[in-house]
Amino acid sequence: MTNHWRDIKNTDLILINGANPAEAHPVGFQWFMRAKLDRGAKIIHADPRFTRTSAVADMYLRIRTGTDVAYFGGLINYVLQNNLFHDEYVRNYTNASFIVKEGFGFNDGLFSGYDPAKRTYDISTWAYEATTAQAQPNPGLTQGPPTTGSGFADRDMTLQNPRTVFQLMKQHYSRYTPEMVSSITGIPVADFNKVAQMVGEMGKPDKVMTIVYAVGLTHHTTGGQLIRSAAVLQLLLGNMGRPGGGMNAERGHANIQGNTDHAISWEILPGYLKIPAPGQKTIADYVAQSAPKKSDKNSWNFFGTNYGKFMVSTLKGWYGDAAKKDNEFAFNLVPKPAGNASWMTIYDQALKGKMEGVVLSGMTAASIGPDSNQVLQALGNLKWLVVMDALPTTSSEFWRAPGVDSASIKTEVFMLPTTHWIEKDGSFVNSGRWSQWKDQVIPPQGQARHDHWILADLFQRVKKLYQSQGGKFPDPIMALTFGYADPTKPTLDEIAKEINGKDLSTGKQMTTFGNLKDDGTTTCGDWIYTGSYLDTGNLMKRRDGIQDPAKNDPTGMGFYANWAWSWPLNRRVMYNRASADLAGNPWDPARPGIKWDATQAKWVGDVPDYPPTMKPLTQDSTAWLPFIMNGEGVGRLFSNSMVDGPFPEHYEPVESPVKNPLHPNNSASPVAFLYDQVAGRPNRFGTAKDYPYIATSYRLTEHEHYVTQHVPHLVQLQPKPFVEIPYELANEKGIKSGDKVRVFSKRGKVEVFAIVTKRLGPMTVAGQKVYQIGIPIHWGYVGVSADSDPSHGRYWLANALTPFVGDANARTPEFKAFLVNLEKM
Amino acid sequence: MATTINPGEKYGFFTDTSVCIGCKACEVACKEWNQLQGNNPRTVVDSFDNTGSLDAQNWRHVKFVEHVPDQPSTTGNGAAWLMMSDVCKHCQHASCMDVCPTGAIIRTEFDTVFIQQDVCNGCRNCIAACPYGVIGMNQQTGTAHKCTLCYDRLQGGLEPACAKACPTQSIQFGPLADLQQKADVRLAALHTQGATQAQLYGRDDSVYGGLNAFFLLMDKPETYGLPSAKNATLPTRNNVGGYVGALITAVVAVIGGLVAFRRRGMTP
Amino acid sequence: MILLAEHFVRAPQWLWYILFYFFFAGLAGGSYAIGTLLRLSGDVRDEAAARVGFLIAGPTTAICPILLTADLGVSWSRFWHMLVDVTPGSTGLNFHYWSPMSVGVWALTIFGFFVLVSFLDAWRPFIPRPVNIVFNVVGAVIAIYVASYTGVLLSVSNQPVWSDTWALGGLFLASGLSGSAALIALLIRNRADAAFSLSRLHQADGYFSALELVLVIVFFVTIGAAGVLDREIVWLPLWAIAVAGIAASLVEARGHMRARVSGSGTVAGMRIDTLVVSVLVLLGVLALRAAVIFSAQ
Ligand SMILES: Nc1nc2c(c(=O)[nH]1)N[C@H]1C(S)=C(S)[C@@H](COP(=O)(O)OP(=O)(O)OC[C@H]3O[C@@H](n4cnc5c(=O)[nH]c(N)nc54)[C@H](O)[C@@H]3O)O[C@H]1N2
Ligand SMILES: Nc1nc2c(c(=O)[nH]1)N[C@H]1C(S)=C(S)[C@@H](COP(=O)(O)OP(=O)(O)OC[C@H]3O[C@@H](n4cnc5c(=O)[nH]c(N)nc54)[C@H](O)[C@@H]3O)O[C@H]1N2
Ligand code: SF4
Ligand code: SF4
Ligand code: SF4
Ligand code: SF4
Ligand code: SF4
Ligand SMILES: [Mo]
Q1: Is the ipTM of this complex over 0.90?
Q2: B66: contact with A, CB 8 A cutoff
Q3: Which of A548, A626, B29, B102 is the most buried (most CB within 10 A)?
Q4: How far apart (Å, rounded) are the C-alpha atoms in residues C116 and C107?
Q5: Is the CB of C26 inside 8 Å of chain B's CB atoms?
Q6: d(Cα A475, Cα A465) in Å, to the nearest integer?
Q7: From first to last of its 297 residues, what are the pLDDT tens digits of chain C?
Q8: What are the angstrom distances between the C-alpha of B250 and each of C173, C175, C209, C245?
């Protein structure tokens, strides 16, 4: 989230796309209801299914899964065509005025630079003109910075130049007419226009809208662009950086945000530093290829400027004395993977027999898919599998799953009982980036050990082996700092302290990442957490909350600055410089983020996303622009940071019943990575002929994915696996609620019972009638329900159906849109 | 919602179905606090309800009623997929209390209706009487069980577990007067928004002299399985009719008997 | 009476124990009442039959508390809670005049005393006439309550059918009396000393059954008005048995009326055998209660 949960109460309009907060984030959802009840905010929920969120929404739109780019594209078009965008904001705080290189183009669904053989883009044309024209004062409507001729990107503050981002964007989205949107999404034109009107209002400075999304957008081959399309709309309406606005991702597990920050995903190091690439020998190489480049003279390019300092401090934290100036701070000890190592890649490698073993911790591969049957094969291909979990999972039990011939499975499976998160202290980072320290609720049960103790112990043993036997490249192991009181039992407190980092010259905890250095005198474990654990103590433990709102939330905006700690630097709303105009006055005085206080000569309100005493642009033409993390210093309507296009474009899911109405020849994402094909396995994608129905998968509020199969109180609430079938379709098929049905895709099948409902229904897409059916993800062959079932849950894995393909950028699987067929059993 | 709880005051629930999201946190919170293990899992196949009804193991029960129209786009606002967290109404005129022969059912110092487990002997007369099907027999204890309105928590100054757990404040706990006033405000708001079908149930004395646990409904009471005001009558209403009927019968029968057996002829 | 009542109640699961309690309570109360009536308006030739009535009341009454208690959730340790309120702070006797169950338990207790005395007196007479008659009359009042309150108890609920009619109290009383008359007749049918009472018992049974028939009709009309008739459909077989019982006793009684008109002392040959009639009637009494009790649950 750019904002945070409580902030949602400050909004006027809530767009919920690809999320079901009432069911997946019920507690966070209280703030949606407060906005609705206390300030009359409206909630618009677009979802393939009428869910428990729709039940309290002011407007529910039945949308075809995977088509939100069209929805947002249509809104962008409406806002541009009717000049409803926030003009001053768009000119000064976005790259609308930036001029794009000649040669950039878009034709029949393909951006310039496409290589069909490699299925990738050469993005060199997705860049700005940087001619050296005469610097000239800004003739724009408002006092923006002057355009420049110093090798920075050219800008046209009038936005008239046909190659400005603004004009290119306008042209790009002109194709997204209400009729086109309707024929792609299935939302009737009239209803779409209603939404467009409401959204159009939100470009006014005194109005603000929030967009909330979750994995209903990410679980698509176009996931990244689905989200970007919404972000572009928010930039146009001037809603980024403002209380009550923003792009708000509702994150997953209670600490998935913390996982991501600390580099759970393959392409990053802690703090979203890029993973080093092959060929990079020096920090300089690394920074040159990784850091954003300053492309406007008023851009601080904070991230880019400090990239090296963050990296060096991280290396120093990892390798201590072994990291010295003359050895590039041990940069050579960091792996520089040639290939991608995303979730699907791991199992793809295992299928190819290129994987010895896998350690699963707090995640059950067999259930979470995609294409569980293939994943199960992959697990069977391993020499060994270690499952670190508090409870049995479909992965720890896969070798004796119903229908599996255990004898045929050579994988040696080890179960290491870990403590469950309620058995340890530590921090949870919520969607709003608040790192909240929690206590241990119950002592570890049985022989369970903390994950970090298991890993520490493992590390010490490996280290011993290297010591005694030597080996290829022992340095990364030998050099690793491990300065915990008990090297096999580090405390989470020690680790939190280490993550914050310290100043080696003074031995004091760092107070801000602004002071991190690239000379080896400072350390950090994750720069965005610097400032969370000071010499004065652990700020994540702070609890100054609603006991005394007057004192703890003086602005009434819900920042509660002394409740826990929020990265970065305890900032509650990111990019908050954009919440005020060029002169530093809040766009909406009633809902200030930060504002320039002339008397104190500093920014007040939230922790400013800006040098606290830097005068606003109107008083200092050299002042920085608001989006300090970008090279441009402004929000990017046009971005070259995505592999599948600088402007979000609608592509069909890999499995879709229709051809893309915008460009039938390039219907689906041209760059989505096709694992099976690349690995020489047959692509197992179904066609509408054999699999006429669209399916989407999701969680139910009564469950936590798979694990709550062990919790009787919750099992009672939704005991048996089911699929939700539209009433009309069920009638065609003679299916009644409670009947047993078989749902099958090109990959596999589930055999469960039917819930027939009008919450799903037919829709007209590209002139044809399509049905969507809903498949909850919860059940499998482990847990209370399976134990009481004759088939022992043999055909209960939702992911037996899903395709082994993912988003071009993040490689997140396409769990949310695939084709199935359906029959009564 | 930190309300201080004082014995002697009237407390209750205002359950606003228009904001209920059917998350069932109330059901689970109740079971956790009251250590109810729940029934064996069974699938009811009634929308998302698998609890079925209030009983000895379920003192909160979230009802789901699907009225979702055919149009692809609709307004939710609690009126298309109705969800209601049902509970003991803690009636001012409580049918259960009305018929209980042992005096096990009492009105507490918080003006709630409470079944004393050490007094109840399991005759089940209250079950026959409660018009809302709230009470169930606990097989282990052989006594009647229902929502206690967290008597133990109230005594400890804590709000009821279900209200505490409710994320949307669909369940609001507090002094009855405050709740009634809140409810009126909310109803007015809904009416101005055009939700004319919205209505309060049990807020005034039209049902059982008023319900301490009253509701804001988005459809008529019957839709949620609640007797309408007209049908909300106490069991004891039938005492008179029943006894009079019996009396008349008795009189006629006695006369009949006397006639049949009347003395006739001499004794030999 | 509410038209088209809606019911959202849960069934109390009052099944076999309660059915038989209602059955025996009806017979106990009925027999005692008939015994009293025989003594009141009959003559010495009816004393034998009257005593049989009191003798029947003994065991049938004795069974009642056992059945009642057995039906409780916490049976043997807490049945007395019906009489004594053990609520901490407000302990004392439990008498809720508005709760038929509470009143009924008291009635049963007191009735027990009357039955005991009258039983002993019937077995080995020790109370001189007319004292015993006075005693019996008082007892009979309670007896009639015991035989009828069970119907009222059902009505004082919110159960479908039960709470939708006011006829149950009377219905149970009438059928209780009819059943008792039949039972006494059955037991004395071969006793020369009581032969005199036999045909008059049948005659009385006829009146009771006629009354019962009227009340059955009232019952159906009232529940029909409440819109819960459908609930009876499954139980029609039971109702058939009940009506068969009524019919049998009516036919039988008609025979005796004729006989009396014809002035002849005996009606031999004209009547169906007492055994058959009485059994039919008693079955009817049971079936009627079963039909009523089950139709709500
Ligand atoms: N109770 C509960 N809460 C949870 C979890 C849980 O397991 N149980 N899991 C947690 C985790 S890890 C995560 S990631 C989050 C996920 O939170 P959510 O993303 O909210 O959960 P989902 O149910 O996967 O998907 C949300 C909705 O997206 C809709 N949808 C699918 N495809 C599309 C689409 O293309 N467009 C639009 N507009 N909607 C679409 C689905 O119908 C579904 O209703 O929930 C977290 N919270
Ligand atoms: N088709 C389809 N598939 C999906 C999704 C979908 O929407 N559709 N959603 C996807 C998403 S977003 C997610 S996040 C995944 C979720 O997939 P998982 O993360 O596998 O689901 P959980 O059941 O939450 O598994 C968490 C496991 O962690 C264990 N655990 C809890 N605490 C600890 C701890 O402290 N240490 C250790 N070692 N273990 C612990 C629990 O016992 C449990 O077994 O599913 C994905 N799969
Ligand atoms: S489980 Fe935790 S994270 Fe999820 S909604 Fe509840 S409180 Fe929020
Ligand atoms: S709802 Fe039923 S149990 Fe609760 S007080 Fe009223 S009558 Fe008694
Ligand atoms: S079951 Fe218990 S509470 Fe209910 S009426 Fe009988 S004694 Fe009273
Ligand atoms: S008040 Fe207490 S007992 Fe009653 S439903 Fe709520 S949690 Fe359960
Ligand atoms: S907790 Fe609240 S929102 Fe959830 S089901 Fe219960 S009443 Fe509804
Ligand atoms: Mo997730």
Answers
A1: yes
A2: yes
A3: B102
A4: 14
A5: no
A6: 13
A7: 344 557 888 988 898 999 999 999 999 999 999 999 998 888 888 888 899 999 999 999 999 999 999 999 998 888 889 888 888 888 888 888 999 999 999 999 999 999 999 999 999 988 888 898 899 999 999 999 999 999 999 999 999 999 999 999 999 999 999 999 999 998 988 888 888 888 888 889 999 999 999 999 999 999 998 888 888 888 999 999 999 999 988 888 887 776 655 544 444 443 458 888 889 999 999 999 999 999 888
A8: 7, 11, 13, 20
